[in-house]
Task: structure prediction
Amino acid sequence: MRDYKKIAAYFSEAGALKYKKRSGWWMAGIDNPESIAGHSHRTALIAFVLARLEGADAEKAAAMSIFHDVPEARLTDLHKVAQRYFDSEKAEALAQKEQAEGLPQEIGSELKSMFSEFNAQKTNEAIIAKDADLLEVALQGKEYHDNGCKKCREWFERAGKELKTASAKKIFKEAMKSDGVWWKGLKAKIR
Result:
């Protein structure tokens, strides 16, 4: 039997990610950083493309990327300084387990499996999902840096060093050379 009330509650809880901010950017001085949901969305897009470029399962890598931060609805996004004071992996695993308990068993089990696979970093899809997470941080850090936050350089430099896949490294290299003005040449011509 499916408990649609619990499924609706899961979606409501996941919606909280739209309002929770990525806390590491506050350490760099960003007053209004991106939301966890915004980060997860672009991470999933990156994971899908990276997986296709690397010949892996794009849907699995994207799903892993979109679900891996859902525990932050309960825990918030804890920056690296805060994480040094407790076992964040254990806390995330417990939050994910409890969140999945409200879902139908087969879905909850699949999410638990994805979460474990992501953390183990042994499959191509997990490595790609992690690279997507790092690449998204690098892109966001570069965007903040280009808009005046010089402290954000550390974020994109560190993320770039941790990338594993050839495609992510190539995209990172190109992104770091970019001025970030993706809309050049798209303005309407004056008639």
Notes: The chain has eleven helices and no strands. The longest helix spans residues 124-146. The chain has a mean pLDDT of 94.
